[in-house]
Amino acid sequence: MEIPQPNPEHEWLQRLLGDWSFEAEFVMNPDQPPTKSKGRWVIRPLGALWIVAEGEGGSPDGETHNTIMTIGFDPDAGRFVGTFIASAMTKLWLYDGALEGGSRLVLAATGPSFAGEGETLYHDIFEIVDESRFLFSSRLQGPDGSWTEFMTADYRRAA
Q1: Pfam families given for it (predicted)?
Q2: Which of 20, 29, 64, 91 gets the highest tally of CB atoms within 10 A of its CB?
């Protein structure tokens, strides 16, 4: 079997490689003030076709949690694919996504509703600002189809 060669989508992912620090803000309940958090991600390549992001940071409950995200591009499907796990969750999130414009990657996943009943659609969004900064946000889709952003993070390349 011949190893596939990277295409422009794989090369786009390589722009995220590095050691990053972040400041995040979570809105878990609209009746409460946002919770702030800090942490870091190390994003490394897995060959030229995948990236692995390993994160550590504080959570709204004050504990330190770890995360692992994988992202690649499936040329046959024409879609970005990946996974996300967190030390504070039992759910394995499966991503399916696409680039919007040249700087924004929207990854969709289905998961449990914050309301505790059924499932809903989530988006995790990477937006590259420049080579030393990207923004990351998470939003969920309500029953009426509208989107609510509940987490934003500003990532800066560590020196």
Answers
A1: DUF1579
A2: 20
